[in-house]
Amino acid sequence: MTGTDGRAAVLGRIRSALAAVPPQPVTVPREYHREPLSGPADVERFAEAVAEYRARVHRVAASDIAGLVRELTGSDATVVVPPDVPAEWITGVRILSDDPVLTVEQLDAADAVLTGCAVGIAATGTIVLDAGATQGRRALTLVPDHHICVVRTDQIVDIVPQGFAALGTERPLTFISGPSATSDIELERVEGVHGPRTLDVLIL
């Protein structure tokens, strides 16, 4: 008997046994929290969870964003931005706008990228990008080694289902939980493997 014949024989016996006593259907509980967020989210919990992922968290007013960006990157740094970021975010910052579309080489040569986000999730410290307003295309936040992300407090939700409820399905989604990192078989953490090595989160 070949391996194929043996496999067929075993599967045939399993089918015969199941035909005599059909298995009972299994009911999988789906009791997720699906209600939308009502009231303000736990911003402090979000900040703590983001920091646990080795991201740097800053509480900032809109008028202070540009100054903090210059402080984080250096006065001579070049910062990539989507074309629709607010002007007050980049006052006095040396920017490289993604309009016309920048090449991968230009993105790689930049010192940092500055974007907004779609949603922040307090329970997991996750930031979600959907290529919407102030975020630009996905490559902007995957190629440069330093990502500065502005999160408004009204974009923060408490739990993951609330985050999905706030997101659409027509855009590509990028979930960020701290700087890009991985661990090899020796559990040696390596950062910057498939995304930015440094993540600064500015809670607006």
Automatic annotation (TrEMBL):
Membrane-spanning residues: none
Domain LUD: 105-204
A Pfam family this chain is assigned to: LUD_dom
Gene3D superfamilies: NagB/RpiA/CoA transferase-like
Coiled coil region boundaries: none
PANTHER family from the UniProt entry: LACTATE UTILIZATION PROTEIN C
Name the record gives this protein: LUD domain-containing protein
Organism: Mycolicibacterium smegmatis (strain ATCC 700084 / mc(2)155)
